[in-house]
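Final report, section 2: Outcomes. Of the targets proposed, Valerianol synthase is the one most frequently requested by collaborating groups, and we therefore present its record in full.
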Amino acid sequence: MALRALFSPFLVSPILLASLQSPKTPTTVCPSKSIRCASNTITIDDHTVIRRSANYPPSFWDYNFVQSLSSDYTEEKYMREAYNMKDEVKGLINGVMDPLAKLELIDAVQRLGLKYHFEGEIKQSLDDLIHLHNDAWCSDDLHATALRFRLLRQHGCDVPKDVFESFKDETGNFKTSLCEDVKGLLSLYEASFFGLDGETIIDEAKIFTTANLKNIKGDMSPSVVRKVGHALDMPLHWRLTRVEARWFIETYEQEQNMSPILLEFAKLDYNMVQSVHQKEVGNLARWDVNGIDKLPHNIRTCLLALFNTVNEIGYWTLKNRGFNIIPYLSKAWADVLKACLKEAKWYHSGYKPTLGEYLDNAVVSIGAPLALFTSYFLTTENINEEALHYIDKLPSIMRCSSMLLRLTNDLGTSSDELARGDNLKAVQCYMNETGASEEVARDYINNLVHETWKTMNKGMFESYPFSEPFLSANPNLGRTAQCFYQYGDGHGIPHNWTKDHLISLLVQPIPLK
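The predicted structure is given below as tokens.
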């Protein structure tokens, strides 16, 4: 299921591809049009249109190699071993210990990628901490206060920002003595990314900790140096769970107070999840070979065939609930195509939209709302019309997810896209509108990323007609975008960091004892 959530943008592809190959597909859905596949040429009504090429390099993933991926960790002996280890770790979490030790254990469990095994135990432990009558254990400890704040907000508890007031001096600034507390600075830094709009003290904490972590002087252990560099590279809140788990397993192994049973369970679980990923990516590769490359040329035919076919077989009609999702699916696709058409008109007319105009359209043209819409069906057992209607309106949490994909994509790819003659992107729209330099414009768009995460954080506290795992699919799409576009176009032109992530996720298991 984890991989399916990661690849949710492609969930509708098997249906589209089935439509292409189905013997029931009408051959005259659009009789006045002749659509012909050629590498970069489309013939419509005898008019030849030359498509601009992105010049993307070929995939470095050989189809046969992907299909050959296999793992020993599907064997029953590993399942039995994991079951026993899980019971031992559950005993650790439920055990009696001081509050800070319990928080650090929960944090380690989550960063090791094991949260999904212990949802109930973690919730109960955090509830117990909320109801402690004495907060003396953390009131003067920056690390304890910040860790408690982060974990509780991460689990949907709106902890007041005022818990950090005691760490300020009489001038209203964070105390200079905190600069010597690297562990506390690092915890406060990570906590600051769970801030909400208008929380000035959290914004100040982010600025304060970022500056001081960058300028730390004196001797530090290799472990601390590694953690600081990792955090400054990207905060924990923005990282993909499985990518972080691989990194943290290696880091946790070097910790003096690490739990051997927790570490071994994390390694085994990682390898078992990887074996599931291998099977699912093999299925995704077969979809691609079967014709995804044809979609750009045949999108019109595909969509018409899709709606005709699904209506024939009644696949999307939820008979027992008395409603049909076809109108919602049709609108989701139509919204994307309309947004793309608007961008095409802007391009061919030479129109330069304002940043606001661009973003209002681009959050849809990027395809994220459609991706999230389709992921709802994969992640939800009890589909209901209220939720479909709500999702159709693009609520804030979905808009934020779409905005994160759009902004991070633009920061990572706009230079290459403009070089091949594409539309203006967010950075260039801001430059054109304000006369700012590219450096200033990039800083502004990067700040929009931070502000969008604040809105996303707020959205996670609200009530919705849907629940997990679809709820978490929204920030996870934002995290996926940050992972792929952190250093450039890691999706269209995969570089070393993309290869490294995918190889560690899909190919290389972690050695066990």
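The chain has a mean pLDDT of 83.
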